[in-house]
Amino acid sequence: MEEQRQKMLADISHDLKTPITTIQGYAKALADGMIAEEEQKKYLNKIYNKSIELTDLINTFYEYSKLEHPDFSFCFESIEIYEFLREYLAERYEEISDKGFELELDIPEDHAFCNVDKFQLKRAFDNIVNNSIKHNPKGTRLFINVTMDEQQSLNKFVRIVIADNGVGIPQELTASIFDPFVVGDDSRTSKQGSGLGLSISRKIIEGHGGNIALETGEEKGYKTAFKIFIPLLGQ
Known about the structure:
The chain is of the alpha+beta class. It has 2 domains: 2-68, Helix Hairpins, CATH 1.10.287; 77-231, Heat Shock Protein 90 (2-Layer Sandwich). The chain is 48% helix and 19% strand. It has 6 helices and 7 strands. Strand 4 (141-149) and strand 5 (157-164) form a beta hairpin. The protein is globular, with a radius of gyration of 20 Å. This is histidine kinase.
């Protein structure tokens, strides 16, 4: 446990140091008058973009630590889950389309109610969708399928599948994909993000009494599929 904690602290330090070092370098070059006037706006934009990246990292670390805290509690409310998902995907549609992705939906027209924390559940979905967008090329098809599932146990669950036909996840990462900082140190760069997104998603979904699993392969034309199970209200 202590070794894992030390590695996590080292990973956090690495991820924070990278954009800070870049910001310091650009700022010093500007302060020392080393940048031509016509190039200064470009450098200021780079500083701004790196500061946004740094803010995103800090927010992600904060969210992860908050979920780990024993006093954390979800703000549950009863919602119609199918409509919630349609509204969520409508909010994300323009961004997904602008990234060059195709979005394919299969959501029932009837009603199903779940007890959820809407803010946290959106965060869980965001992390999974963002993971697909980040690691796949333009033209990738993102597929969202929602069904009722009664095979998990005696209880009833809503099954939400978020899948894509992109490059897939390396086999050596599939067993640990939901662990924090799963990306190897040699390939950790600022573009890779914090490595906490899917771990946060798992914590949120399990906090709802559900679970999440990864399936890989060519089933139905999709290489990567995250299957999420959320219990129906009253189960």
